[in-house]
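Ligand: iron/sulfur cluster. Inputs:
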Amino acid sequence: MKAVEVYHGCENGQPGLGIRINLPATVQDLLDAWQPLCDDQTIFKQYARDKHALCKDCQRNCCNTAYVIPDLVSFRHMAEMLGTAYDDFVVRYFQAEKREVGLLRLIPEPCIFLRDNICSIYPVRSLICRFYLCTPLLGQTEQLIYKIAWSGSAATQVFARQQGLVPEAGPGASSFDRLFLGLLDEYRNSPGVASFLDARDYRDISLHHFLEE
Ligand code: SF4
Ligand code: SF4
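Predicted complex:
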């Protein structure tokens, strides 16, 4: 039995995709099961050409508008791949006005790493980038992948504050920023965040931290 299985099904009359987790399983197992979906032309993708194209051919590339706070594994790997120290990395690649209010958002619109409609750091891109798929998700699948991605982002925020890379939330935060900061704070003491803080790789992070009891 595979650690993570993707299944096709129907909910409220709408076809979609779901996942089944067979513990023990790790975030890497989930990524291994999820990645082929980007290259799968049989599944419905709301924004793709003809609703079924490859993500890499997509003209409405979601990287143009994405709000990306990288998870901590990705944050570390990106800095390593770019050969930059963390303080330099955040200054060069993260939005200055968000850093001032304590948030680490990649420079957007389009994402600073998008070149000719292709991600220039593809092997180390963040979980939120890896998981996004414009197709309906079944059961608890969406909640699960957002919980994992948010835990990873919250771990980056905790790490960045520990390292003095960003201040505590500042006075200039917009209501949207405050919403993000509040969500990230909700996650910060969770076992999933602790797991990201200890991990060097997605294989080090068990999915059991993110499953409902
Ligand atoms: S997930 Fe993103 S890249 Fe893929 S088809 Fe949808 S909008 Fe395009
Ligand atoms: S990091 Fe890569 S995949 Fe993620 S939004 Fe930026 S260009 Fe797109």
